[in-house]
Write a structure and sequence with these properties.
Elements (H helix, E strand, L loop, with lengths): L1 E3 L2 E3 L1 E2 L9 E4 L10 E5 L5 E5 L4 E2 H13 L9 E4 L5
Antiparallel strand pairs: 1-2, 2-7, 3-4, 4-8, 5-6
Length: 87
């Protein structure tokens, strides 16, 4: 989970080597389609992602609790995008 203010980006990594996993999407996002949100990564670098990929922080926190309680399952409350799929 990456957090910036009241928004968060979730990434769910699978066990396939080289697989980019899945990332969150907000189907209710109504802002500019090209809006970007910046996040400070663990290594100190700045990462920029589309704001439409972020979800409200409260929803992201609940998804993280679900991950822990379910022992690694992804939350059904999040719209997940398969980042390995060719668009």
């Amino acid at each position: 989970m990456l957090v910036n203010g009241g928004r968060a980006l979730l990434v769910y990594l699978r066990d396939h080597e080289g697989d980019p996993g899945l990332s969150s999407r907000d189907p209710n996002y109504a802002g500019p389609p090209d809006a970007q949100t910046e996040f400070v990564l663990d290594n100190g670098q700045l990462g920029t992602y589309p704001t439409a990929w972020t979800v409200p922080l409260e929803q992201a926190e609940e998804a993280c609790r679900y991950f822990v309680i379910s022992k690694g399952e992804r939350s059904p409350q999040i719209v997940w995008h398969d980042d390995s799929a060719v668009s």
